Amino acid sequence: MSNPTKIYNDYVRANLPSTMTFDSTTVRYDINNHSFFKFKKSNWYFKYITKFGYASLSAYAVNNFDPDLVFDFKQNYYRTGGTETTLSPAVTHTRAGNATMTDSDGKIKWAPHNLLIRSEELNLWSQLGTGSVVVDNAVAPDGTTTAATLTIGSTTALRYILSSATYTAGDKITYSFWARSDTVTSIGFGINGGASTGNNAIYANRAVTSTWSLLEFEFTILSSDASLYYIIGKQGDNPVNNQLGDIEIWHPHTYRSGLGGMVNNSATGNSYVPTTSSPVYAPRVGHHVYNGSAWVNEGVLHESEARTNRATNSNLFSSNNYTKNNISVTASSVTSPDGSNNGWKITPTGTNPYIRRGGSISGNFTHSLYVKKDTADYVVLGHGAGTKGLLINFSFASGTVVDTGAYGSSTTYISNTVENVDNGWYRISVTGNTGANNNLVTFPWDSATAPTNLDSSSNASSSTVYIYGAQTEVASTPSSYIPTTGSTVTRAAETLTVPAANLPYSSTNVSIQIDGKMTYADDGFDNTVLPWRWRLDSSNILYNTIATAGTRTGQPRFIQRQATSGYDEVIGANNVYSPNFNVPFNLAGRYGSTFINGAHEGTLLTANTTPTALPDLSSTNLELGYIFMGTIGKFRVWDEDLTDAGIEEAST
Hints:
With 652 residues, the chain is mainly beta. The protein folds into four domains: 1-56, no CATH class; 60-111 and 284-305 and 492-652, Sandwich (Jelly Rolls), CATH 2.60.120; 113-282, Jelly Rolls (Sandwich); 308-490, Jelly Rolls. Helices cover 6% and strands 47% of the residues. Strands 4, 5, 6, 22, 25, 41, 46, 47, 48 and 50 form a ten-stranded antiparallel sheet that branches. A seven-stranded antiparallel sheet has the order 7-40-49-42-43-44-45. The longest helix is centred in the first third of the chain and has 14 residues, at 39-52.
C-alpha cells in the first residue's frame, strides 16, 4: 500500500525553491541560515524573505548559523525566536531585595530598583479629600498616552499608597515622578511611616510648569520602618496650600540614592523601573570592571548565592563595633569607591596599632576591605586576636599580596584576592577557616614581611592608610559590596530563568555558548560553577559545569543525560581555570542525539559519539547562572549543530 505522506514529502523535497535545501541527515529544511522541521514553516519563511528581502548574517552568527536566542548583556541586545526583543520578557529575573554594582563611572551604586508599587496604576492609590484620577489619559514625555490626570478638588486632596521594603534610619531615598499642569504650579511630596510616626515630618514642594519635567525629592529616613506611605499632594504639616486643578503625572518611582546613587535601568535608560503589586529589583546589567586603565562593561553581574555581611557598620569605623588600639580614625578623609567623601583615614598613635571588629565566626570565611595608600607602603588585613589568626600583607607599590600566613592555632589560611578599583583604591580579601575567634583586623605596615601575630605589629607605628567598606562573609570568596548600618544585612540570591517558549529546540541537535567572568573557590565539587542548566528531571538534562573535585582546580565539563541514552559527557583538562576573582571563561558545546562535544577559549575537545538520544526539553525552562558568582557577557542558543569548527569558533 502506498504511503501518501512519503509521496508528498518526496515531491516537495524534489521541487524546493532554489534558495531552500533539504538536509537528509538532520531531516530539516534550510534557508537563509535558518532551519525548520516542517516544510510549511520553511515555506512561510521563504515567502516572507522573498517579500521583504534576505537578511545577512548578524554579528552573533557562527559557522554561517545565526542563533535564534541571543542575550548580549554587554551590548544590551536580546533576541528570541530570531527576533529582536527586550530583556524582559526574554528572561525572568528575581532577587528579593537590593544589591550593589559598579557603574560606567567606576562608582559603587545601587542596582536599578523601584520601592514604590503600582507605578503605572495611580487609580489604585488611595484617595483622601475631593479629587479623582484617570490613568492613560494624557500624552506622556515618551509620546505614548500613558500619563495619568490627577484632579485636585479640595485643599486636603492627596493620593497615597503604602509600599513595603526595608527602610533603615539614615538611608537616603529619592522619590520622583514626571509632572506637568496648565493650572497647578506647585505639588507636594510627602512621606508617612508605615509603623513608625518618626518619618511623618518628611515632605517637600516642587514647582510644576506646563512642560514635562522630572520632579525629585531626596530625603533621609528618620526612623527605621518596614513600610512607608508615599503621598502626592498636601500632607501633614506641609505649610504650602494645595492648589486646585488638574496635574498630569507619569511614572512615579522611589529608590535608594545613597552610595554613588542608583544605576539607570538598562530597559528605560533612566531611573524608572516599572512596578505592579510589589517593589522591583532589576538585574544588574551594565556592571563594570576596571581593567587597569578603563572601566569595562562586563554584562550582567549575577550572584546565585545569598550572602550576609556580618561586619555591622561597614563604613562607620568610629563605631563601638570596632576596637581601636593605639590608632585613630578620621571620617570624610578621601573620596571613596562610591564617589562620596566618605573614605576613612587610620593613623597609628603608638605601638601595636590596629583596628578590629569584634565577634566570632566559624568555618570558612572571607574578609574584604577597600584600601588606598596614604603614607603606608603596605596594609595588613587579617583575622584573629593576639597569638592566633591569619594575615595577608598587601603592597601598594606592586598591587599584590606579598606575604601571607596563619599563626597560632584554630585558623587556616586558604586564599586571597586583589581587585584594582581605580583612583588608587584596591579591594583586598583574605579567606580562611577557623573555630570561634575575633575577626576583621587591619592596620598600616612598614615592612614587606607580615607580623607573626597582632601583638608584634609595633613596626607599623608611623604609616597611615585609607579604608572603606568592610565586609565579612561566611563563604570562600568575596561578593559584591553589602552596606550595613548597625546590623547585619543579607543580599538575596538571584535567578535568571529563560522561558521554554523563548528557547530554540531540536530533537537532534542543540548548540549553546556562554562567556563571562566567574568568581569561585576550590571547594572540591563537580559542580563548583554551573553557568547554565536546562533540566526537565534528573534523567533529562543538559548542562555545563566547572569542576574542582579531587586534583581539579577548574575543569570544564559538557554533560547531557537522557532517560534511555543515559549519561554522556566531554571534559577538558583538570586545570583549565584557577580559582580566583573574575576569572574569564568562554564555553561552547554541541549536544546531539548521536554526539556531544565542547570547546573552551578556542580549544576543541574530543567528541563523544555514544549518545543515542537527546532529552526532550522543548517545554522546559532554562536556568541561566544556576550556580554562579560573577558576570555573564553573552549567551547564545542554536537549534542547529554548529559542528566542531563552529563551537571552536564560538568559544574564541
